[in-house]
Amino acid sequence: MNLDPNIREKLLQESRNPFRGIRRVLWLALSASAGIGLLIMGIRSFAGENVLKNDLIIQITAFVLFASLVLIDRSKND
Fold first, then answer.
1. What domain count does the chain have?
2. What pLDDT is recorded for position 5?
């Protein structure tokens, strides 16, 4: 089989990390969602509304988790 070396390398990379692009988009979307939720909770808190500590802890945890997944899932070439 005569494959172009660039195509072969790309296929090998995809077989080592399947659906990497989709995962990165998912992690970015979820971390952005958690960040927006955290921002809204912060604004509500500064405005004087009551924000439950449990909800705030959940938002912070989600943001840290998804942001760290974005960093962990990046390749060594990035």
1. 1
2. 85
- Please write the tens of the pLDDT for every residue from 9-46: 888 888 887 888 888 899 999 999 999 999 999 999 99
Which tokens hold the place of 8?
């072969």
Distance CA 45, CA 35 (A): 15
State the residue range of the domain holding 32.
19-72
DSSP string, 27-45: HHHHHHHHHHHHHHHHHHH
The answer to whether residue 68 is domain-embedded is yes
For residue 9, is it within any domain?
no
